[in-house]
Design goal:
Elements: E1 15-26, E2 29-40, E3 44-48, H1 55-62, E4 70-75, E5 78-79, H2 85-92, E6 95-98, H3 110-121, H4 126-139, H5 155-166, E7 173-177, H6 185-202, E8 205-209, H7 213-219, E9 222-227, E10 232-237, H8 239-245, H9 249-255
Parallel strand pairs: 3-8, 3-9, 6-7, 7-8
Antiparallel strand pairs: 1-2, 1-4, 4-5, 9-10
Length: about 270
Amino acid sequence: MSDDPKISPPPAGKFAIEVEGLQARYDERVILESVSFAVKRGEVFFVIGGSGCGKSTLLRNLIGLQHPPKGSVRYFGRDFTHAPVSDRKAFLRSFGVLYQGGALWSSMTVGENVALPLELYTDLSRRERAGIVGLKLAQVGLAGYEDYYPAELSGGMKKRAGLARALALDPDIVFFDEPSAGLDPVTSLKLDELILQLRDTLGTTIVVVSHELASIYGIADRVVMLDRETRGVIAEGDPRELRDRSEDARVREFLNRRMEPTGQKGVSTS
């Protein structure tokens, strides 16, 4: 039986996430400085920028894998950064994360992977967990794959299995770390369509870390762009508006670059 505390449903309000004055660093090396932005409820929000600009570092700070020495992150108006450890554990139950590659445990079946959060954070019976696992796999188009192992899945199927696990606890927010990495264009498009479906059917707030223009223009409501040299935000808004009207040459160059095919040759389109 889990003793982890539970937080009440998110209160009414405009924003799902508010980041204010956040600093991120590794030892003495500052990666991000004074980063501030907000994500609206039910929004598909992208964190974009070139290599080394701090996108993944920002994600690690948002989900609690790193603790910012300065600034704060609030979820639905509640302070996550400075909350007691017990409360932070409760916060973690309110969002899911799809890591690059799906991050599935290779020694566990797909069903066991998806059931893991339910085992850790709920008091549900084995039968009840199995029912939820089946539902979540069906939501991502993997009904009937409970007994498969990750090695038996294609790249796209692993991503979807990882997403099913991220959805196991019915999170209010789902974070995606470079979801198109390693996928061919067709599989990437299918994943983008699935992300929109989750937002539209479940009202989930979506945050995506990516540099893929096809996905950015295909599903993003708004973006925030990070810059390696300034260590901060240099643009925020509709990516199409920024592409066409930004006064910052770095933003225009990034958003007007030629789209490269997503993924690698030989990857299955499943």
